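ok posting inputs for the adenosine-5'-diphosphate job
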Amino acid sequence: MLDAPMAVVAIDREGFIRSANATAEKFFGCNLSDTESVRITDLIPEFNVPALETSEGLDRLNSGGRSQGPGRHMRAMRTGGSEAFVDVQAARFSVRGEDFLTLFIQDVTAVVEAETAAQDLRLQITYNWRLNSLGEMASMVAHELNQPLSAVLNFLEAAQTLLNRPQIEPDKIRKFLASAAGQAERAADVIRRLRSLMSRDTGFHAEANLGEVVTEVMPILQINARELEADITVAIPQEACVRCDRVQIQQLIINLVRNALDAPVTGQKRRVLISSSPVEDGHRLLVEDNGPGVSDAVAARLFDPLASTKPGGMGLGLSICRTIVEAHGGAINHVPSTLGGAAFAFTLIERTADA
Ligand code: ADP
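and the output
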């Protein structure tokens, strides 16, 4: 144990370090062997000594150390102040009636740094992808704004014409002004939606009405649909509520629907159906189409970045969709479509235990 390449320390029931090997001293950068004044919590502040009194506590620590889930690592304090992360496993032993714990402390700082870098990269990719698709979307939004703004102008001109008449008709004028205001609100809505899609906030999960989340992005999707004479139907029960990051889920829906609209033509009118059905702990969403379905060549690596059959396609869309769904604790799958084309299904959780 003294020569072990891993840091090993023995602590008593109070958490005082009673012996340590050379690797532990080197790792923490201090003398631990001849002193009984250093507690394990001085070195690993979140280490919970009382929790290890029971076998369950010990099992929890030991199985947590081996699991692959996030949050299993503990922050360690080293002399000199450099930050480190460790995984700890423990075993109980007794000497002359006194209980001790041997702690096997593994330095996982490099692993944590790599995980953090990967997470940063994922966020960056999500952000860049959102901006790229927004670049394309900007022209469509301009198109969408054009219509309500022209309508505002028309209604105001009509009101002005009425005002110039010798006989003023206030009711008619009021009606034109109200119509102009309604159209201006629609334009403001398009802009609001664009701003929220551009927001860099990620990971904010709040309770949301699923139908509303989807309906909010429909005007954007309808622009594509109109150009292709496609039909998008939303069938989500009114009461469906989930915990989600609204913007991310909207991004996910936009991408799946746009993929459905991008699918090669089959001769029949394009149809896309966005539906949801309740499942045990939430709602299962399905985005399906009546296109030709996913080609065999792509099916095997559908969610891999760079897998694309489109000229100029980046193949990032579905990979990002998967990142978003996984960030919500679920999985996204390519499943058979009742419409005959491709379908993508994922589940969103209704609410967390504490909600
Ligand atoms: P991109 O859209 O840039 O190609 P994606 O990751 O979104 O990237 O999609 C990868 C590939 O999966 C597409 O190029 C296409 O071949 C296929 N695909 C995705 N959705 C559908 C769909 N609804 N119907 C047919 N093929 C699809």
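notes: Confidence is low (pLDDT under 50) at residues 65-71. The CA atoms of residues 158 and 176 lie 7 Å apart.
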